[in-house]
Specification:
2 helices; mainly alpha; two-stranded antiparallel ribbon
């Protein structure tokens, strides 16, 4: 067994470096591998939704099951609402 008390002063830093390297490499090899991040099948970004289609989708969520009238300019409301004056 290695007797640390008998080591010379110039050998101690070398021993410290050696032990540090051994600990670093052994813990790396024993570590479990990380799961890889799943890649999307298509690298192309999603196309943004048309503003008119977005307004209609929100209107359908707001008034489900009701007939919707589109006055243009993203003004969508239920057709059975009171007459909307401009």
């Amino acid at each position: 067994m290695l007797n640390i008390a008998r080591l010379k002063a110039n050998q101690l830093p070398q021993l410290t470096i050696l032990l540090t390297v051994l600990l670093a490499t052994s813990s790396e090899s024993m570590a479990s591998p990380r799961k890889s991040v799943q890649q999307n099948s298509s690298p192309v970004a999603a196309v943004p939704e048309d503003p008119q289609a977005y307004a209609m989708r929100i209107a359908r969520q707001t008034w489900p099951g009701r007939d919707l009238c589109d006055d243009g300019g993203y003004r969508i409301h239920p057709c059975d609402m009171a007459d909307r004056s401009r």
